[in-house]
Structures are given as C-alpha cells and as structure tokens.
Amino acid sequence: MMLFLSFLASLTAILIVCVFFSNSVEWLGEKLNLSHGVTGSILAAVGTALPETIVPLVAIFWGVNNAELKDIILGNHTLSSSSEISLGAIIGAPFMLATLAFFLIGLSSYTYFKSGRRKSIEIKVDKTVLNRDLTFFLISYSLAFLAVFINPHWVHVLFAVVLLLMYGLYLYLTITEESNSNYKGEELEENLDPFLLGKIFKKHENNPSLFLIWVQLILSLLMLLFTAHFFVDVIKDVSHHLSFPAFVISLLLTPLATELPEKFNSWMWIRQRKDTLAVGNISGALVFQSTFPVSIGLLFTTWQVKSILSYATFVFCIINTLIILIALKQNKLNYKTFLFCGIAYLIYLVLVFGEIR
After folding, report:
1. Of the candidates 326, 297, 329, the residue with the CA atom closest to the CA atom of residue 313
2. Whole-number Å distance between alpha carbons of 244 and 224
3. Which of 30, 42, 186, 302 is deepest in the core (most CB within 10 A)?
4. Rounded distance, CA 317 to CA 91, Å?
5. Does the pTM exceed 0.85?
6. What domains does the chain contain, in order, with CATH numbers?
7. Distances (CA, A) of 114 to 23, 106, 264, 326
8. 43-64: per-residue pLDDT in tens?
9. Can you give the three-state secondary structure of the chain, one letter per residue?
10. pLDDT class for 73, splitting at 50, 70, 90?
11. Which residues are CB-neighbours of 176 under 8 A, at least 6 positions away?
12. Average pLDDT over residues 171-193
C-alpha cells in the first residue's frame, strides 16, 4: 500500500511541476514575440519534452561515484535498473506520442465533429511543417532502432553526433522556412492559460513580467530534478516488487507522468479548430525526442534492448508515422487516421500483460 501511495505521490508531483514548467515556456514564447511555428514546433515542443529528458538523466547520473561516472562516459557499464529506467523513459516518450497522443487528436476531432463544432472530418494542417517533422522523425528514429543491433560504443557515439546534427538542421529549416513563409498559423495568445505565479502576484496573472516568467521557469526546472529523482527511486521499487523489467514499467509509466498530460492541450486546440498547432505540438516533440534524448541514451547507456516488447515500441512508432505521412501526401488526413494510431498501444498492452502472466 505504501509503495502504491509513493508511486501516486511521485506521479502527481511530476505532473504538477510539468504544468508549471509548460506554463512558463508558453508565456516565454509569447513575451519574446516568437512566431507560431517557432513557438509551437520548437519552444513548446522542446519545453514540454524536457521533463522526459530529465528523468533518464537523473536515472543515469544521480548519486554515481567517480569510478561509475568514468564507466558511464566510456561506455563500460552494465544494464542496471537505472539504465533500464533511462532507456524506458527515452524510448517511451516517442511511443506515447506516436500512439496515444495521436489517438487523442483523432478522438477529439471525431467528438467535436459529431457534436457539430467541427464541420469536416478533415484535419487541416500546414503540410510543409508536418511533412518535415515526420520525415525527420522517421530518419532519426530509424537510426536509433538500427543502433540497437550495433554493439561498439564508438558507433553509438557516431550515431549520437549525427542525431544532434540532424536536430540542428531541423531547427535551422524550421526557423528559416517560418521567416520566409506567409503562413504564420493560428494566434497563440488566446490559448494561453493564466500565468500560474500570478495566483500569488495577482496583477501579473494575465500580463506577467519577463522576470517572473524566468523565475517560474527556473524554479520549476529545479523541482523537476528532485521530483524525477523521487520518481526513479519509486520505479525501481515497483520493478523489484513486481519482478518485472524496469525498462517496460518505465516505458509505460514515465511518459504518462511527463508527456501525455501536456498533450491534452492538443485536444483543446482541435476543439478550437487550430489543427496546425495541435498536430505540430506533437510532431515537433517527436523530432526532439528522437534526437536529443536518444543521443543521451546512445552516449551514456548500453542502448541494448533485446526483447519483443522493446522492438515493438520502435516498430509501432515507425508504422504509425508512415501511415500519417502517407495520408498527408494523399490529402486524406482525418480523424480516422489518428484514431488508428491507438491500436498500436492496445496491442502493446496485450503483449505486456501477456508477458506478465
């Protein structure tokens, strides 16, 4: 019972801190007067993805001694429970995005179409942006999957460098194409929630100063470190208690704490018929999750996953992305396409529970 309460407490703590962190990022984008594409596909996507990046970093580096740190950096390490948790968190985020998060897009679109709020089953997005995001994700995540079958650490280092360069290229293309395009997307300001520290400083609730935004951002980032450490310890205890791999538990549970709650924003944006913002928030996060966090995994973990459950996460992500990309190119992108993505998550749950039994 105490373990269950500890798990709920750690999950709730991360969720609350993520809300503060994402709120800070959104207001920072507004204050810096960044365009919709940069705010949605880069700042918001990276901001909401950062918590999932912190969890594996904490799992890998928190509490290690000098000898262990040297082994981690040189790749001379074993697949410990901490390494399993970090791998689960890194791989689980794209899996959650490409399955449940995309499913939510379809479900919200279908719900509002049936209620009459949306007049068409079509999901209208900036095709250039989505095509670029999904193409980058397919390439980077395929490289990450390929690296699973390659053992030498120096090859993993090479792959990590390539992925980081790819994300740099993605940033460059996103910013330059945004500045050269007449398409600026939907206005973001009306979607902003009240500034959370404004609950204390009342006059700043709807117009916070840049200083207060930075204060909330830094404080929430520090709290993320401590809550992530608490969460990692609880995951270890849960894994030991259930006698089940920490990798799978982390893969299923960590993104629920750090990724999926933020993607409910996409549900509201679909309701407001702001499809580019809703889908771009997820596709931009996919690009980040398949490059920077994966590079951390390649550099500082074994990056060795050798089970059907592990391989399935990569395969389902790639299949779902291909389905959406094909529908986009054929001008058939609608709620049915995104609802289909949820099937992969159901299949994975069946595989997991079958393994447990």
Report:
1. 297
2. 26
3. 42
4. 10
5. no
6. 2-356 (1.20.1420.30)
7. 31, 12, 19, 25
8. 666 666 666 666 666 666 654 4
9. CHHHHHHHHHHHHHHHHHHHHHHHHHHHHHHCCCCHHHHHHHHHHHHHHHHHHHHHHHHHHCCCCHHHHHHHHHCCCCCCHHHHHHHHHHHHHHHHHHHHHHHHHHHHHHHHHHCCCCCCCECCCCHHHHHHHHHHHHHHHHHHHHHCCCCCHHHHHHHHHHHHHHHHHHHHHHHHHHHHCCCCCCCCHHHCCCCHHHHCCHHHCCCCCHHHHHHHHHHHHHHHHHHHHHHHHHHHHHHHHHCCCHHHHHHHHHHHHHCHHHHHHHHHHHHCCCHHHHHHHHHHHHHHHCCHHHHHHHHHCCCCCCCHHHHHHHHHHHHHHHHHHHHHHCCCCEHHHHHHHHHHHHHHHHHHHHHHC
10. very low
11. none
12. 62
Q: Is the pLDDT of residue 113 over 80?
A: yes
Question: Is residue 278 predicted with pLDDT exceeding 70?
Answer: yes
Average pLDDT over residues 320-343: 93
Structure tokens at 10: 């750690």
Please say whether the beta carbons of 142 and 315 come within 8 A.
Answer: no
Residue carrying structure tokens 């939907």: 186
Distance CA 102, CA 268 (A): 14
Mean pLDDT score of the chain: 77
Size (the chain), residues: 357
